[in-house]
Amino acid sequence: MASIKAIINGKSITAESGMTILQAARANGIHIPTLCDHPALSPFGACRICLVEAEKNPKLLTSCTTPITEGMIVHTNTPRVIEARKAVLELILVRHPLECFSCASNGKCELQDVAYELGVKDSRFADPGDTNTSHKLEDANPFYVRDLNKCILCGRCVRVCEEHAIYHAIDFQGRGIHTSIQPPVGSPIEESDCVFCGQCVQVCPVGALFEKTAAGQGRPWDLEKVKTVCSYCGVGCELEVNVNKKTGKIANVTTNYSSPTALNKGRSCVKGRFAWQFVHSEDRLTTPLIREGDTFRKASWDEALSLVAEKLGEVKTKHGSDALGFFSSARCTNEENYLMQRLAREVMGTNNVDHCAHL
Amino acid sequence: MALYRAHVLICHGTGCASGGAPKVLEAFKEELAKKGLEKEILVIATGCHGMCEFGPIVVVYPEGTFYSQVKPSDVAEIVEEHLYKGRIVTRLLYKEPLSAQKVCHYKDIPFYGKQHRIVLSNCGYINPDNIDEYISRDGYQALGKCLVEMTPAAVIDEMKKSGLRGRGGGGFPTGMKWGFCAASPGDKKYVICNADEGDPGAFMDRSILEGDPHAVIEGMMIGGYAMGADEGYIYCRAEYPLAIKRLQTAIKNATEYGLLGEDILGTGFNFTLHIKEGAGAFVCGEETALMASIEGQRGMPRARPPFPAVKGLWGKPTNINNVETWANVPRIIVQGAECFAAMGTEKSKGTKVFALTGKVKNTGLVEVPMGITIREIVFEIGGGIIGDKKFKAVQIGGPSGGCLVDEHLDLAVDYESLTAAGAIMGSGGLVVLDEGNCMVDTAKFFLEFTQRESCGKCVPCREGTKKMLDILTRITEGKGVPEDIDRLLYLGNQIKDASLCALGGTAPNPVLTTLKYFRHEYEAHIFDKKCPAGVCQSLLRYSINTEKCIGCTKCARNCPVSCISGKVKEPHVIDQDKCIKCGACMDNCPVGAVVKG
User: Fold this and answer.
1) What is the pTM of this model?
2) Where does a domain end: B477, B503, B527?
3) What is the ipTM of this complex?
4) To pair with A320 at 20 to 30 A between CA atoms, which of A16, A186, A304, A309?
5) Are residues B184 and B163 in the same domain?
6) What are the φ/ψ torsions at residue B236 (nearest 5 degrees)?
């Protein structure tokens, strides 16, 4: 990659050819506020929060879409830029419900962050009755809630659905002030192509999309991210389980689009993201059980494994190796399945190996 | 071609066609057959003459006699008197508003006198569905010249020399734009014709497509040759069914003649042309939204760069020009760049077609040389203000434009002068306003339009135009507050500065220019709760002058909400609480006792 020299806020920087002004600024530790931008998504240029000024260019430029060029002199915080950002922000706040107290995104809301940074409390232009109430809360599915009144139309959900989930289940609909994010005309999200992978929920910068399961489970600052591998199938998606430090319980599951170790690159499926309730289920088995007559008794792993080894040995001695079969699971990783077939073939001496994905 | 002693040209533009031109044409055919004249006189359906208000228009050649508002029932008389006996039917001639004289010949009508019809030279003169008529007027000569005698670079050079600038509103030098696309690497390129004309009241492009579709096709092919594109799209709004039909016929005929397709004129040049119908979104006139729409995506603008010349339709280098720009191309090639550049001002060459509407006596389509003054357009071509009322302003450039006032009447119209005055050339809408127009209401009208047509992508345009509209609405309802003027100015300037595309970037113009020139009208609405022009309903008050009232009861009888009381032969009174300000009392009062104010 060719290297480019430019100046941002008086500081000489180098950037790679093809970088946007925003990327170049970030790579050099210069902060530019954003809303519609997301590092994992294609640039969109819709929110206009990241506007900057470049010398010799009469127009304000969206730093998220404009490539940085050799010798460019960029200013990210001139009075003109700050005023434009404030105007844009205050225009968003005209209709955005200021329900931060009860909002699921309080504390991680990027709109809050931008307002805080620009010192904007509310909108000079908001008149009584302007707050958006035109959309009904959509919570018919068990996974996430859509509160379109809070939607700022940044288009992140549309882009993540198209670029990462590859479903394109939702898009912009309507025009002007009636624009909203919807599945194809007239159908509810539950009857659309949506597979409820929940990536839209994760990238939503505000509280327009939130996990139903996370309600009341903890504020963002209560949560600790625990990196793990999803146990649902053999793909091995990397997940972040967000555990409430106070209660020790899971609040929600997210992914990391920039994790170098994540082979799923931030993608998830409905199970990985939403089906974790079994973790805290009272019915969940946490110790091995040994059958004695009609009842089970709790046992230690050592005891249980010894018993299994003993019984398998008995069967092998009495009936031969092929009297045994080993049945594994598609929920195990490749490595686990590999180890199991080695156990079957090398230790027990049988090729009777199968798994549940055949069913 | 057979020879005829006379030609009857019947305008079949959208205006005249909806006014009954096809029936007039049928009547002519019948009458001529009756008289046995069908082999002597040819009846032709043509494109638009521009004077749509006076349609259906019939022009009889060789004299060029101009009949206006012709009905099927008039046809027998024209055939009998004019075509059979050689006597002009005076009662059907156009009456010139300034002198109140009947004008016999096309060329003597002042509406056309000041015009310089180059792009529109074939409109109203040839049958747009007949490719032979186009060819007989030097059609496809420019294409032949380019393909046989000129290199692509020479064509671009010629365009640069002509000084032609984009007629869609931006005014970017066409030759330079072609040069960018030609220089852009890629083995597949596209040319696009933007025919998504959407400004309220504008119909320049429609008339060109309806009246001279081959000119646009030829222009695009020349562009395709110059830039190395072998495929073109005409993006035409679906609300122009006649234009689409004529384009389809034109493409079919040109293909049959080997003028479209492969190895055109034996030169190895290939070019195919598609029509893509729009789906009713104004914003699709914005080039990046237009391309998204052709690709089957939602018509939403995207950020530039990359510019279409580098990464356009389906990611390929693409050049987009509007209808009028493309239609200029063959003329420039045939007549030479110098000839074109001789017209106009220093930086704006050639002519511009305007849709002249509003409070002028002659409304319609006018093509004038750049550099003409607004006074000439309004008072000479337009014939002045209807009812000889006082001129107030012209709104130039549609919803993206601004208003100009008295002091600009002698302004020489070109891209720079209009921009400097706060308006824009735009696509060429020109609405004349008189003292009866409220400027706040006018600004509100345009903002309603832009808000409705905003694609909703970027915040300033989506939210900002709505807020400006809210403020304007409350001002016109008498609920404005003193801070509203500053709010409008602030929002207007910020929306201009921060919007993604030209729709948002220009949407505040009507508000900002009316605030600049008519701030006192805003103040009258806000502080005095009065609409000086008497337009804003909420601020109107009807009352009865008791001295004039004769007690005829006519007002009371015509009031739809029965809010007028009074005894017979005694003065009547309007109950202001109940009055809905419909004005029926005023319209019906025989003695002018009802006062509005």
Assistant:
1) 0.90
2) B527
3) 0.88
4) A304
5) yes
6) -115, 135
